[in-house]
Amino acid sequence: xxxxxxxxxxxxxxxxxxxxxxxxxxxxxxxxxxxxxxxxxxxxxxxxxxxxxxxxxxxxxxxxxxxxxxxxxxxxxxxxxxxxxxxxxxxxxxxxxxxxxxxxxxxxxxxxxxxxxxxxxxxxxxxxxxxxxxxxxxxxxxxxxxxxxxxxxxxxxxxxxxxxxxxxxxxxxxxxxxxxxxxxxx
Length: 186
Ligand SMILES: [Zn+2]
Fold this sequence. Notes:
15% strand; 6-stranded parallel sheet; 5 helices; TIM Barrel; globular
């Protein structure tokens, strides 16, 4: 899955609609080559769409409908300490979002992350079938364990993401099946 940033994040190489359309074509061509080589691998075209603090996306719906998966993510006003439930509910109302990426905006030893009435957020995510992401970048530790348990109890889908912004970071995620390793340090 390729999920480059959207145009609202130029500092992170955000792409506009035309660039994503071009990338969609490149991925289609690459998939044809992979199929011809019987590689057993299919690339999916996605996006990490920037969400405003009020939950609005920054890309045209016509583009989003052509993609295989749409991540929505907050990248601003991540240090607010008051309850952000309404922000999450607004984001979940966006009909194009499949996954809430790095949902809390937490960064270890740097940013505490947003808080919300998670039962309410999870109930709405379940109803709309939007997944919450476990972000594989080690500093994020975004869905802490108790929140992950709440999500599991609610039955919400969980998405595993690398958050790899360059090839070297693809090695970072160390997801493992904690059920087969109970008593570990997770
Ligand atoms: Zn992000």
